[in-house]
Design a protein that fits this description.
GO terms for molecular function: ATP binding. The chain has eight helices and ten strands. It has 236 residues and is an alpha/beta fold. It has one domain (2-235): Rossmann fold, CATH 3.40.50.300. Strands 6-7-8-3-9-10 form a six-stranded mixed β-sheet. A four-stranded antiparallel β-sheet has the order 2-1-4-5, covered by helices on one side. Helix 4 (121-134) packs across helix 5 (150-161). The structure holds adenosine-5'-triphosphate.
């Protein structure tokens, strides 16, 4: 699903600190189809930077990055936009839910960005309800997101990210705002999604329990991948 070879990324700094800040200095790793991969590393090591590249949000890097058979750097802006819509589901730590909409309308929101024709409202809501059932919040269909617990909000954000049946779900600190019981339930949900829907997961985390639950751990240290192994190796 993902093949990264020699990925280099620097930020250009302005002002008193003008110059280049190298963040990724030749990152190599693979993630196979249907795998659950955790990306770990100290604060500032470049985890979110890497997610932005994988998600097609930033094309300013060197090296080879292939996701679902596409070499991302060769895609035009229109092709990158289609890639983000069709191939990627995003889940952010700060849920990004719209509180003036019901939960089911939040889940169906990605339908409004479809380029290949419109789905009927009925089809949208059927899909949204099916997803809310999958993530275990079927009873919250008409509720406003603001009335949900942190764990329920994260489930809602995951349901929305799955709307277009993405091949790759990328998540930035999905349990960062959750208590340990809610975090454990979200991890169990990720494993179930991987087993039942075959979606590939790449999750940036500081949470050692996510790393331990993952099939593969990608640790970024000093701009390179320090370790790419299974979660159990990290625990040992
Ligand atoms: N747009 C930007 N312009 C300049 N520097 C940036 C930019 N975005 C990130 N950085 C810098 O790049 C480095 C890596 O940042 P990044 O957010 O990828 O790290 P991270 O591993 O995700 O950190 P955290 O765990 O704290 O979220 C940091 O030093 C950060 O300050």
């Amino acid at each position: 699903m993902i093949r990264a070879r020699g990925i280099r990324k620097s930020y250009r700094l302005a002002g008193a600190r003008a110059g280049e800040l190298p963040v990724l200095r030749g990152v190599d790793f693979d993630v196979e189809d249907g795998e659950f991969a955790a990306v770990i590393g100290r604060s500032g090591s470049g985890k979110s930077t890497l997610l932005a590249l994988l998600g097609g949000l930033d094309s300013d890097y060197s090296g080879e990055l292939k996701v679902a058979g596409k070499d991302l750097r060769t895609l035009s802006d229109a092709e990158l936009s289609a890639y983000r819509n069709a191939t990627i589901g995003f889940v952010f730590q700060a849920f990004h839910l719209l509180d003036h909409l019901s939960c089911e309308d939040n889940v169906a929101l990605p339908a409004l960005f479809r380029v290949d024709g419109k789905e009927s409202k009925e089809a949208r809501l059927t899909r949204a309800r099916e997803l809310m059932d999958t993530v275990g919040i079927a009873d919250k269909i008409g509720a406003r997101p603001g009335t949900l617990s942190g764990g329920q909000k994260q489930r809602l954000a995951i349901a929305r990210a799955l709307y277009h049946r993405p091949k790759l779900l990328i998540c930035d600190e999905p349990t960062g705002n959750l208590d340990s019981a809610s975090a454990a339930a979200i991890i169990a949900l990720f494993r179930r999604l991987r087993d039942e829907s075959g979606v590939t997961l790449t999750i940036v985390t500081h949470d050692p329990t996510i790393a331990a639950a993952a099939d593969r751990v990608i640790e970024i240290r000093d701009g390179v991948v320090e370790l790419a192994g299974g979660g159990e190796e990290v625990q040992a």
